Amino acid sequence: MQRREFITLLGGVATAWPFAALAQQADRVRRIGVFMNLAANDPEASKEMAAFLGGLQELGWIRGGNLQIEYRWGAGDSKLYPRYAAELVALAPDIMLASGGTTVGALQQATSTVPIVFVNVTDPVNRGLVSSLARPGGNASGFIQFEYSLSGKWLELLKQIAPGVTLAAVIRDPSEFSGVGQFAAIQTVAQSLGVEVNPVDARAAGEIERTVTAFARGSNSGLIVTASGAAAGHRKLIITLAARYRLPAVYSYRFDVADGGLISYGPDVVDQFRRAAGYVDRILKGEKPADLPVQAPTKYQLVINLKTAKALGLDIPQTILSRADEVIE
Fold first, then answer.
1. Are residues 42 and 161 in the same domain?
2. Which of 75, 208, 275, 315 is exposed most, by the fewest CB atoms within 10 A?
3. Residue range(s) defining the domain that contains residue 273
4. Cα–Cα distance between 127 and 131 in angstroms, integer?
5. Residue 284: which of 84, 72, 50, 117 has the closest Cα?
6. What is this structure's pTM?
7. Do 188 and 307 fall within a single domain?
8. 156-178: pLDDT as tens digits
């Protein structure tokens, strides 16, 4: 072979090799482990997963094509989380998506190397999930659901829609790090609003029903339902109890009001799952969660159910109605 022909051939091989390698990488099936704190048959979980999968598809990731997904469903039972986390990690996924701080904590106990993208996490720094919001520094990053100060606004909202309320039961999960923080933020504003607040544990259905039933015997009472996997999982029971005992109640999420709750103020959870797809894409393409800043919500929603308000005999002030992002009639 002549020297010139050899150099030309070598140049052709050098040019073709990166394209061949990229094509091989693109064709490789990647595995995602998804750990949800809701039940598999929860309609809200279906919406969240549809948003996540839709976001991935827009970025070229197709389930059943170049993407395989394994699920675990916590259904608000944090006692099962360590087992489910270990099962997911044992499947050797390329990356994991986790909803809720307790699920992330369980996953980080099981692995310090598999990347994790999280959604719906409150205060990830103080609960030890990341080093800082700007530079997470470990194997996890994602999207916080809100600052604790938002919890105080739920009590303010309760007083605005039901000025006579002087006693509020705060449904929270004490086993979750954020349950303590949310209740503390509500306590901070309670005295100035003239409201006494009492915690109600949300870990088991029987516990919720007994406590709310006893609480409802008092007068001038209302409910605040903080954000937790347990409260979300038991939301239909909580909404039923609020209706049964005619308790005005403020919730954390839109889906509570869509299911018959009175009013909610909180982040657009479905939007967080859509945004999480972007972080998953970036990590699968070589970026590290340690270098991706934790992001705050970009959308908050005030949602009101007028049918429920009417059943409770409440007239929602026009000032609140005018601020609502959605009114369900």
1. no
2. 315
3. 8-144+269-296
4. 10
5. 117
6. 0.79
7. yes
8. 999 999 999 999 999 998 877 78
